Every structure is written in structure tokens, then in C-alpha cells.
Amino acid sequence: MPFWIIEMGHEAKKRFGQNFLVDQNIIADIVRAIRPEADDNMVEIGPGLGALTRPLLKHLNILHVVEIDRDIIARLKTDYPQDKIVIHEGDALKFDFATLAAPLRIVGNLPYNISSPLLFHFADYAARITDMHFMLQNEVVERMVAAPSTPEYGRLSVMLQYRFHMEKLIDVPPQSFRPAPKVDSAIVRMIPIPAGEICVKDEALFAKVVSAAFGQRRKTLRNTLKNYLPEADLLQLGIDPQLRAENLGVPEFALIANHLSGHA
């Protein structure tokens, strides 16, 4: 039997980015990090073959799962007590999490090929979320939690850090999966920043400023943001126009965007 055929008889499907976690020690570490409580409103994204589903259900009264693979959905309907699992069939990118009771806790081994769009989709529901624990490509996690003036720091770092407190928790090697991916993985914890503490007043404008600043990463702010504000305004805000986008933290980007929107 080919190595990509899982012991349970399911063939991993590349179009869904499926890599199934099989390392029991890693699974136990993840569940300990999540600390599920019986009454949690928990949602698992892409339960797959149940690596996290089964141990989570030992602690939870109810678990919601979002799954797109029809073969796995059929397994979910037969392998688990239906009074403890609520199956939402479809694409997590299109799922309306506002239909579930808040506050939500979201977990999952996210498909690496759509991880960034999924993270931004979850951000739209941040006010309804207590925390999130995700398995992601390690490179993506490093970018998410990166500090300014480091190689990993970029647009993704800024756009998530203004909405979430984030922490890398666990390194997960390729051999922990079947089939083994070609990259290292990691678990990240994301806790939404309360709405009253978010420093950005106009999110759409903030996103445009960040995108423009990182659009030509090696150029200085004087050049990348010249269509938004003159060099004199940067100086007025206490920001050196000779700096590059990677040198600014979230507060500085928020300061620029708020200045442009008249909220400074």
C-alpha cells in the first residue's frame, strides 16, 4: 500500500492540502496547550481522521467541526456520537462563524495552501473569539510572531499583530504527519485583542498603508508612502522617512493610518 494511504484507509487529497497528524506525543502536547473545558464552544477546522477530534471530545460536551472532504464527512457521521459532534459541511473560508454561539474557541490543522486567507477570515470574527490554536507551516508562524527589524517581519506580521496576541507554542517535525509534508510545522496560539484596545481607527486605510509600505520592501518610507503623505508629515509624527517598512512596529503604522484618517 502506498505510504500516502493512511492506516484508516483514507487517501490524502492534495487539492485539500491534507497531511494527517499521527504523532501521539505531539497530539497530547497540543491538547494540553488548548486546555479544553466541557462547556467550551469549540470549533475544529478540518478534523481529518480525528487526531485532535477524539481527544478533544473526551473533554467537551459538544464539538463543532468544519470539513469540506465528503469522504471524511461520511466518516464523521459514523465514527462519532452524533449527540456530541456538529458537522458543518463546506469550505471554512466561506463559513459564517457568526452563526455559532459566542465566545468561540477555534482549533485546527489548517491547510497550508490557504492558511493566510483563512487567518484573515477568522480575523473578521475576532470579537466573537476567545482564542485560536492552529497547526501551520513553521515559516508562516515565524512570520506571524516576528518582531520589527527581523527577516521574518512583514505585512502578515503587522496585519495580524494589530488584532491578536500571538505565541508560537510547539515545533512539529514532518515525520509527525502522514503523508509527511516537505516543511516543518508549528502550533501557534492567537488571542484577539479587545476591540477597545485596538489602536487602528480605519482598518481599510491601515491595510492599504501597510501594503504600500511593504510593496517595495527595500525602499524607504519616503518612497513607498509618497502617495499617502509627504515626508514632512512623517517627521511630524516622529517617524524617520529613511526607515523601511520592516523597521516600524504596529503602533507606528497605526499612527500613520490614523493621521491620514484624521484620528491621530
Tell me the count of domains.
Answer: 2
Mean pLDDT: 92
- Span of the ends, CA to CA: 63 Å
Strand order of the largest sheet: 4-3-2-5-6-9-7
The number of distinct β-strands equals: 9
Radius of gyration: 21 Å
From the 3D structure, determine the CATH topology of the largest domain: Rossmann fold
* CATH architectural arrangement of the largest domain: 3-Layer(aba) Sandwich
The tally of helices reads: 10
Can you identify the CATH superfamily of the largest domain? Vaccinia Virus protein VP39
Name the structural class: alpha/beta
What's the main sheet like?
A: 7 strands, mixed
Order of helices and strands: EHEHEHEEHEHHEEEHHHH
Give the low-confidence spans.
1-17
Percent of sequence in beta strands: 15-25%
The helical percent reads 25-40%
The top-level CATH class of the largest domain is Alpha Beta
- Indicate the overall shape: elongated
Structure report:
The protein has helices spanning 24-34, 53-57, 70-79, 115-123, 138-145, 155-161, 203-215, 221-224, 231-236, 250-260, and strands spanning 20-21, 41-45, 63-67, 85-89, 104-109, 129-137, 164-172, 177-178, 185-192. It is α/β, with parallel strands linked by helices. It folds into 2 domains: 14-195, Vaccinia Virus protein VP39 (Rossmann fold, 3-Layer(aba) Sandwich), CATH 3.40.50; 203-260, Helicase, Ruva Protein, domain 3. Strands 4-3-2-5-6-9-7 form a 7-stranded mixed beta sheet. The protein has a two-stranded antiparallel sheet with strand order 1-8. α7 (203-215) packs across α10. The radius of gyration is 21 Å and the shape is elongated.
